[in-house]
Amino acid sequence: MIKIINFIFLFVIISSCSHRIGPKIRYYEKDGEQWSESKIYYYPEGKKKLVQVDQYKGNQLYESKVFYEIWPNGDCKFISKEGFNKYINGKSNLFNDSIAIPDNIIVETSDSNNNIETYYYMNGERVPYTLGKRDGIVETIYAGDNPGVYRWENGKKIFVRELNQSDNEIKNKIKQEQNGYISPIFDLSPDGKNIVIAISKRETSFLYQYSLTDKSLTQLTDKNGEYHSRPVYSPKGDKVIFLSKDLEKQKSDICLLDIHSKEIVKITNGETYITEAIFNPNGDRILYCGAEFLGSYSPIARKAPHDLDLYSIALDATDKQKLTNLSAYELSSISMSQSGDSILCKLTEKDFNGIYLMSLSDTTIIQKIEAVNNPRPQIGNSFYNNPVYSKDYKNISFTAPYQLYTLNLESKECEEIWSTFGKDNQAMVIFSRFFNSNDKIIFSILRIENRQYSRNAELLIVDLKTKKTTEIEIK
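The structure assignment produced for this chain is given below.
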């Protein structure tokens, strides 16, 4: 949880060549009240310019902003990196959008008791500032105008060497952490023009819509302190349901987002820990998987949802129904049939282990879906995951370790679509969706690096006839 302290920014540049001009004060009247605006300019080494703009309503500070200007072309950008605050109308507000903050900016803050804290920015992180560090301290600078390895001597940083390959790997990791990690769980809009994804940064995760036509990325949610995941489009594509998780209280609820107005409505009340949700074909109800227990049955196992069942609730948050009494170990990847009378799912419980079709009129009727040409009989059905219908409901796609398959529901024959099985650079297929044409699939992978899964998902589109793949670059 990020704690926000009300304070006013005062920027100074660590440089003997830096200088300050101002404040320049302008007085004006607004709505019958006296206002004033103060501007202070900082010029570090004649290259860049910082402009601090303070607005006063009478004698009371109303708003304080800092602008970062590329010198001398006049291209002015508003500083808004996570961790920076804007003081407005007596409150401090955390910024969401971000641009690179130059290294070596000293920031002095004062709270309501006039206690002063001084720090500076290095590699995009806030570092406590003192007048230099003791001799011999070595620092690696990964960002800014002069990256490299430095050593402190007589209160100054002395350049030692440029970054090597190992340093650059750390630099890339820092950059990735600042940009955020793309979740492998996504959804494709009904018209096939957009995808909705979750991007996480530390303890928060927000939803974004990415256009497959103009390659633009639009943020949909931005409430700090919340973790949003598993977005799903409505049948019309104008709304999205998603899970809003409270990581501290270990709660998970369904929320409904209107894409155009950005209005969010909470559907469930935290009674059940929800693992995933989908719309019914009419778009007036939501089906979801809920766990009665979040924990571990072993002292060495991590906490996980257990005793899963299928539930249904109306879009106006009324008429909640429990549809099954499975208390399943795993119930996931639910995908509703065209008629809405059954669901496709991955189920693990007692006599069930694999991909199944479950009737919603009688949930005791459960039919297993198996390929007649079982592609990897040695691994067992428990390793076949993430089933989803094609748009014409004639096929499904599913995953096996390092592989993506399709299966014809009539012939029950499956076909390998994409694979890194047995290759040097392996990746695990996580999630997939068919396009409306049914001749292409968009899917996500997590690459394996140093025997660990990458935290950042990659999205690919594969042509089912040619098996040619195209990578989606989300920036």
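Interim note for the steering committee: The mean pLDDT is 79. The radius of gyration is 27 Å.
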